[in-house]
């Protein structure tokens, strides 16, 4: 699968339109070496139309319109839930009416989602690109070899692994340990595209990407930004707003190192 440069967390049509335009200005298109990815956050709570204080989650009924405005990008739904036994059923509900036409990718923000459920998602949606999020919770206390051994068990059900110890909290990931995991995945798996997330901002993306490139001697990896492109209202997680000036500067800087 093609690597991507991602921005996650828009909630309005205007935000999606602006991000799509900025991707174009930065030179990222679906024919680029790196796809432009726009990620939309959905949880079991928002799927069930329950209120949330987290400003990064759009109302579920607005999701088709948001995806429509993101035409020409690699759209992805970032889904989280604590109910594992019905995960495939939940994903089916999320993608009802939008699969294929508007979106065919899901990132499972769930520490070690049930393998049978992930396989069931892939069987029902064979063209679905599934991203395994290697979050802090998933990786805690494990060596790269142990993490990869568990990831391998998902087989061909997953297409991407996103090394993301921050989980949208804007905390910079440790490049050395993340690169060790990348190299372990590269040596032990086939067909997986790997990416990095955690604390990317317009100020640091060029330096951090250049360091990753130097360490792995490749540009074949994804990056995704979320918390680092937002302005805090309070210190509560998700009580923040997307800053389009930061988005524009981030994509401009990223395009210099991942053209």
Distance between the termini: 17 Å
Instruction: Tell me the number of helical segments per DSSP (H or I, 4 or more residues long).
Output: 10
What is the H/E order?
A: EHEHHEHEHEHHEHEHEEEH
CATH topology (level 3) name: TIM Barrel
Question: Main β-sheet, in a few words?
Answer: 8 strands, parallel, barrel
CATH top level? Alpha Beta
Strand order of the largest sheet: 1-2-3-4-5-6-7-8
Strand content: 15-25%
What do these coordinates show?
With 259 residues, this protein is of the alpha/beta class. It has a single domain, classed as Aldolase class I (TIM Barrel, Alpha-Beta Barrel). 37% of the residues lie in helices and 20% in strands. The strands form 2 sheets. An 8-stranded parallel β-barrel has the order 1-2-3-4-5-6-7-8. A two-stranded antiparallel ribbon has the order 9-10. The longest helix is centred in the N-terminal third of the chain and has 14 residues. The protein is globular.
Task: Give a short summary of the structure.
Helices cover 37% and strands 20% of the residues. The protein is an alpha/beta fold and 259 residues long.
Can you tag this structure with a few keywords?
259 residues; alpha/beta; TIM Barrel; 10 helices; 10 strands
Task: Explain the layout of strands and helices.
Elements: E1 4-8, H1 13-26, E2 35-43, H2 44-47, H3 63-69, E3 74-80, H4 87-94, E4 105-108, H5 115-124, E5 129-135, H6 136-139, H7 144-152, E6 160-164, H8 175-188, E7 193-197, H9 205-216, E8 222-225, E9 230-232, E10 240-242, H10 244-257
Parallel strand pairs: 1-2, 1-8, 2-3, 3-4, 4-5, 5-6, 6-7, 7-8
Antiparallel strand pairs: 9-10
Helix pairs in contact: 1-3, 1-10, 4-5, 7-8, 8-9, 9-10
